[in-house]
Structures are given as structure tokens and as C-alpha cells.
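Q: How would the C-alpha cells look for this protein?
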Amino acid sequence: MIIAPLTQTPHHTAELVDLVNYCQNIEANLAIKMAEQDDIFQLNAYYRRPGGEFWGALTDDGRLVGCIGLLPLDDDTAVLKKFFTYPDFRGRPHRLGLALYDTLLTAAKARGLKRLVLDTPENEHRSHSFYERQGFTRIDRDQFGVSYAFPDRDSRYYELRLE
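A: Here is the predicted structure in C-alpha cell form.
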């Protein structure tokens, strides 16, 4: 398995749409349309141009099985976005979620960020547990102090202080 910045090829974009759709709509039944999240169709403009990154996890045969994005909002704060893995790669033996998260965290610290924020649907309890184990604390939306577009599905908000 390799985790690297995802190249926006037509093939990888199609796999990314499949991954996001599976995790959000088939597995979690959130009914989020791709039109509500056009960031996955413009990784360079949305993530990389403001100084962030979007990583993909590829199997040895090149299949996309996980992703995570870092979107800087200002000099101090970034959003953890589009954190998805197929179920077969969660937990042991792969621990892909932790590997993707560690990649993002290393990059955020290297960039000098002081805070990560994120939104996640209220009914995504598995995600909540992961974020809380990593030291994120739940906050109210008005505590973000920043704004960004996301498909709100009764969201829960978290932050992690990196200082």
C-alpha cells in the first residue's frame, strides 16, 4: 500500500467518486450528491493551490482504497476533509485510517498549522470515536472561527490543537 498525493487522472477521479459515494451514501445512507462536493473534481484548485494536499491510498495493483484532504483556511487553521476508507482496509491488519491520518497530521505540523477542524455527520459514531481517540474535542460550529463549504447533514464539529 502506498499513500501519496493523488493525481487527478480520469481513472483516479472515477475511483474517488466511487469511494466517496460508497462511504457516504451506500454505507452511511447520507444522500450527499456529488454536485454538493465538487472539490473531488478539482483537487489542485481546491486543496493544493491554497497550500494543502489531497492524498490517496493505493493498493499494490493501483486501486484507490482510501483518501484524506488537508484544506488550509488561514495561516493557523486547516480542515480535515474527505477522510474515507473502504471497510476491508479499516482496523487490523491494514490500519489505513490511522496511516492516512498520520500522513495528514505530519503535513499539517510541517506547515506550521496550529489547529485542525472538521465536520462529520452526527450519526457517524465510528468516525467520532476515531477523532476523539486522536485527541480531537467536540466544539460548537460558532467556535470554528472560520468558514468553508460542506454538505451539512446534522453535523458534529471537532477541533484539534496542534500547539
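Helices lie at 10-27, 43-48, 96-110, 125-133.

The first helix runs from residue 10 to 27.

Upvote if useful.
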